[in-house]
Amino acid sequence: MGEENSFIHLMTSLPSLPALRAFEAAARFGSFRAAAEAINVSPTAISHHIRGLEAHLNVQLFTRETRAVHLTDEGTRLADGLGKAFRLIETSVEAVAQTPGKTKIRMAMGPSFATRWLLPRFAAFHEAFPQVDLELVQTPLLVSPQNVDADIFITWGDGVFPGMIADPLVNVLTAPVASPALIDRLGRPETPSDLLSFPLIHQRDTFGWSAWFAATNVKNNDLTGPIIEDTNVVLQAAIGGQGVVMGWVPLIDSELDSGSLIQLFDAVLSEHRAYYLVRRTSGSQTQEIANICDWLIHQAA
User: Fold this and answer.
1) Model pLDDT for residues 257-281, shown as the tens digit of each residue
2) Buried-most residue among 3, 28, 91, 185 (CB within 10 A)?
3) Where does the signal peptide begin and end (predicted)?
């Protein structure tokens, strides 16, 4: 009876599960917005849960800046414990729910890479691995693989992932691209410097355009134009004739082949980073994971 009362007291004194889940996701992604997308709630809900959790525990879990949040020492300790706990819960549930004779593999990547590279290969994947139930996990572009609960992770980076096995998967070249409609309306630029008078669209920041202009010896100061976070939105804007964007070869090969986008100059910029295939050095189903990684590398060759 005493043990039962102790258990009841423990359960009633714990913070709510949604609050703990919201905190764990925010700690894992380093962003309230990314955490909200990952667990399908609003950023306001994430913020509300975390404020309530901080009040319940009487500690500050995050330091908040204008565009970023960072864990405090107390937050780091709580995040480490909760991450292990949620992974254990998820593994236990999946072990019970798994389809007989099937192996569940979780693969994490950004939505643009999933849409533009993996999705066209889905049928071939299922033909090669009929015994695998594949679960795709959406992640922000620059989140660390160590902080994502997945068997296989495809991420953009420099190849340095401590404690993980990393293989280069897709190298990316960038070059200006535009739609035929925009070229018909404004004419085709004859030199790289002509692009300074065109409407330019940027992804995340102006660095991509600045680097390409520098590589082609074009002075550029105070580049203007809309900055858009999502890769697919950037490309749709270009296809719709709204401006010129830096295209990512080979991820836009289908648009170039169809003629919906046109590469304006032969000059391409080689990125210092690439898409890497990352996995842990140990764990369950290691042979199946290794076979899938070999298949993905072969697909990218």
Assistant:
1) 999 999 999 999 987 889 999 988 8
2) 28
3) none
